[in-house]
Amino acid sequence: MKKKRNLEFTILGAIGMLLVIMGHLDYGILTIGGLFPYYSFHVLIFPFISGYFYKPEYEKDIRGFIKHKATTLLFPYFIWNIIYGTITLLLHCVGISIGADMTPWNLFVEPFIGGHQFMYNAPAWFVPALFLLETCNVIGRKLLNLIKIKNEWILAAFYLLIGCFAVYMAMRGSVYGYYKIPGRIMVMAPALALGRLYKCKLEKWDTVPSIILIPLLCIMNAILGHTHGGLAYSVVWVTGFANTPLTPFITMLTGIWFWLRISKLLARFVTKNRAIYRFVNYFGSNTFSVMMHQLIAFMLVKGVFCLLYLSGVACSDFDMELFGLDVYYTYVPGGHNAYKLIYLAVGIVIPLCIARLNEVFLDTSKSYPRRTYMDTVIIQSKDEERNSHI
After folding, report:
1. How far is the C-alpha of 153 from the C-alpha of 133, rounded, in Å?
2. Which of 251, 141, 97, 144 is nearest to 187 (CA)?
3. DSSP state, 121?
4. Where are the alpha helices (DSSP H) in 147-209?
5. Phi (first) and psi of residue 317, to 5 degrees
6. 164 near 156, Cβ under 8 Å?
7. What SS3 state is found at 162?
8. pLDDT (tens digit per residue) in 29-88
9. Which of 7, 60, 15 is nearest to 256 (CA)?
10. CB neighbour list of residue 371: distance below 8 Å, 6 or more residues apart
11. How far apart are CA 209 and CA 15, in angstroms?
12. How many C-beta atoms surround the C-beta of residue 61 within 10 A?
């Protein structure tokens, strides 16, 4: 049962990362006809996973917990931030003006404020935010436990109120500048609490047949979309909340529940094919790398199109100005969105190759557990994998 549960959440993490990439490509084929806009829930999948694997034992050694999170999340983030700062500096020299200057502020402070300092690693803004969220969570739970507040329903309600307050203040225009730091944490807090609540209270009741649950969730989001006139919002900038303060957390629930059920269904299929299992497991186990490196992978694809344009062979409508100014510029020859599949594939494969090179040269598989984007999904060890029935 443990292995099955781990696989389900590994798949959920992989799906969440897939939706993040598609969101950056503006490729809406997995929005289910627009019923589940990526930006109505996809970022919150990861705090949900983090909450699911949270253990009260962490509160017994808060300093050790924070040290572990700093080692597994912040340390690799800042190493790559320095690397991308160097890449940005070099590219500035050849006329590509994407990204800010390489300064101490952009290297070590801006990641906690905006996270888009060098742009090539912009999607990884979530890593410092997650560190702050998990730190606040473990300290907050410790303090609440001291006054005998341990009931997960009460804690979830408390976190939901915090999230609704942040959304309310954002809708009033009061969340800007440095206020976005606590704003992000507060908006993500209900997802983390939901993950913990699901593990402790709700999972045993999650038995509604998929043939009923999936259409029901689709109907719920169809009604929400019709009555609210748009469900997408931005967690990173704490903006775009056009409805009630509670709406983002309703769509968080429906979106995560939908894809969690899909993950459970896929788990039955994945275990029947060793090659698929290994790929899905590796993808879901290295979401940190995919988040960190997807945009530089997109730049490599655009670089090929740029060379074709400069050589006069093809891509006559390639925009050189946007190529040098906007990291999110997605060129598709002839305007055919099918070419976005190339970006999608490269945006997964290149980061996974970087993750593999990191393992080979640093021997990370032996020195510490393989990092995920959220450092939460429990991964089978190599010995367990060799002894697996597949």
Report:
1. 19
2. 251
3. T
4. 152-171, 180-197
5. -100, 15
6. no
7. helix
8. 999 999 999 999 999 999 999 999 999 999 999 999 999 999 999 999 999 999 999 999
9. 15
10. 72, 73, 76, 286, 288, 364
11. 21
12. 12
